[in-house]
Structures are given as C-alpha cells and as structure tokens.
Amino acid sequence: MGLQVDPAFIQAAEHRPKPTISDAGSIPLIDLSPLLHHQIPSDPSDPAIADEVSNLIAQIGEACRDWGFFQVVNHGVEVELLERIQAAASEFFALPAEEKRRVQRGVLNPLGYYDTEHTKNVRDWKEVFDFIVIESETDSLLLKNQWPEYPPEMREACEEYVEGVEKLAYKLLELIAMSLNLPAKILNSFFEGSTSFSRLNHYNPCPSPDLVLGVGRHKDGGALTVLFQDEVGGLDVKRKTDGEWVRVKPIHNSFIVNVGDIIQVWSNDKYESVEHRVSVNSEKDRLSIPFFFNPAACTNVKPLEELVSEDNPPKYQEYNWGDFFKSRRDSNFQKSEKENLQIYHFKRV
User: Fold this and answer.
1) Whose CA is closest to 288, among 204, 214, 201, 203?
2) Which of 16, 201, 226, 251 could bridge across to 291 with cysteines, CB 3.0–4.6 Å?
3) Alpha-carbon gap, residue 269 to 315, rounded angstroms
4) pLDDT confidence of residue 177
5) Is there a contact between 290 and 213 (Cβ–Cβ < 8 Å)?
6) 311, HSE (Cβ side, Cα atoms, 13 Å)
7) Does this entry carry the keyword Metal-binding (predicted)?
8) Is 262 within 8 Å of 301 (Cβ atoms)?
C-alpha cells in the first residue's frame, strides 16, 4: 500500500492474509434458547431430557468435532453488560499512550496494558488490556489486576461482564461434557480457583493489512475461549476440511466459542483445538473481548479416564496447567529461538 510499517510486524510470505477471504461455509451458529426454559440435565442417559436440549447437545458435539469453533445466540448474557464493557474499553484505548502505560503489564505481573505482544515471534498489530477473575500469587507467578484511573467505570464494567460470561462458560462446558457422553458437571471441579482471565483487544487501522496480522495464527492453550467481537470483524478460522481460512461474520450480540488445547487433551483428540488468527484493515479499528476459561494452576491435564480404553489409549502424557500457562505467558515478552510450549510436546509416540 506504499506506507511503511515496522518490519517487526511483517508476516512471512506464506502466512500473510490473502486479499479476499471466504465467509462461505462459516462456523456453526447455535441457538442456546432451550437453556432459557430447561436446566442442563446431570446425566446424558437421563430419559427425561427434553428433545430440544438433546438436539442442542448434539449440535455442540458436531461443532466441536467438525470445526472446533461455533457461534452462539440467545446465550443469556445481558446486552447491557456488552454495551458497558465496549464503551469502557473504547474510552480506555482512546487515552494517550502514556496514560495507558501507567497500568502496563510486565514479566512479574502479566496483567494490565500491553502493546508489543508477539505471536510466533512476529509482533501483533494490536493493544490489549488483561484482567483476571481470581487474583493470586505464587512463588513463580503474580496475577493481580491493575485497574486504570480512567475511565472510572471500567473496573465495575469489566468485573460484571466477566461474571456474566463465566456463567455462560460453565453452561458450555457442561454441554460439551454431555456431548462426550459424560456427566454434565464432571469437569467443573477443575475450575475451582481458576486461572480464567479476560482481555480487551483493540486493533487500529493498518496501512499494510496485506503484510500484517492483528494476531498471528495460533491455538488457544486453555479449555474454552468465549469471544465477543464488534461489528467490524476480522477473526479468521482455519477450516478443518481443506485448511482454508474462513472469516467469521459478526452477528449482533453473539459470542464465538472455541475449544482449547485442554479440551483436546481431555477428549483424547475427539475434539480439536483449531488454528485461528485476526486480520486487520486499513479503514476501521476493531474491538474484541475474549474470555479465556482456564482451570486452576494446580490442575494436571491428561486424557479423561472415562474416554480412554484398550482400543483408544491415552494420546498425551500428563502435564501441569500452571507450568504450561506460565511458559506461554513468559513467551509474550521476548522473542524466542524456538516455538513456545505446545500440547504436541506431550503427545505420546
């Protein structure tokens, strides 16, 4: 486009976005309205499960298996929460850089504002603000929220938003468990003392959207990601059937959900964490708000015993989520000569 960008942002030729991208055959759209009228049953073999709930569980299972992504509407999260957090985020990101950097995150405490994050050793065209649901401190990791002075309503908007989205995440977790023919709440205990956190993403217009990505291609390391995006769009998902990138079309007041690495391991590869990225454009800025639903740091992740057998042996060695999480966070702050920790490093030969 003629204008120069810092070479740190430029993607290798094979990873640059194409000028046009398909939105055909996009991720499944799932209506959660049956949950407004029915409780999620505790046992998948319960003969009293309503047909519309059974159909919903089946849709969730198919989406997790075929795409690793789906979009939900009628999700029960109040529209007012979405509007308030969008307004607060827009006001925060409009502040002067020196004001935002008053709450800058660092190696010691990886929460707060940041604008030099890398994905696969290429700088992302974005700025972010991270905040966690449950603050904690260990010998190796400090997780303490840094709330800005301005806008004054931002803390309350973020805390109330994340409370609503966490409730949705638990419902989705239970539906996914049911789709694996497991008791609904079998995974819930892993999330007591969770390391779940949320992020405000802001993507400025980019003079070279053909060379740069808002977030480079990656998979999410946690259990589930529940994403709200504005009307601009830019999330691209790698379609499993052919490896092509597909743009996720924004749907007003919807959430985009994807399976993370932990569910891939728990399910012993029945469900797969799928690669995705964020494209930018030269005209509009974009706001998105992912909620990363993660278990407690003490959780050891391995294929669930209920899903392995002599015919389907465990495909992963056990690993500690807290160590994995810290390793991934540390890699945000410095370029590495090797790829950061991935679940395939724990794959059994």
Assistant:
1) 201
2) 226
3) 8
4) 97
5) no
6) 0
7) yes
8) yes
Task: Tell me the pLDDT tens digit for each residue of 83-136.
Answer: 999 999 999 999 999 999 999 988 788 899 999 888 888 899 999 999 999 998
How many angstroms separate the CA atoms of 83 and 87, rounded? 6
Beta strands, E only, 154-308? 197-203, 215-218, 224-229, 235-238, 245-247, 255-259, 276-278, 286-293, 300-301
Q: Pull the structure tokens for residue 95.
A: 């502040």
The amino acid at residue 349 is V
CB burial string 62-84: b at 16+ within 10 A, e below: ebbebbbbbbbeebebeeebbeb
CB 153 within 8 A of CB 205: no
What is the spatial distance between Cα 338 and Cα 275, in angstroms, rounded to a whole number? Answer: 19
How many angstroms separate the CA atoms of 18 and 11, rounded? Answer: 12
**CA dist., res. 278 & res. 213, Å (int):** 6
Residue length of the chain: 349
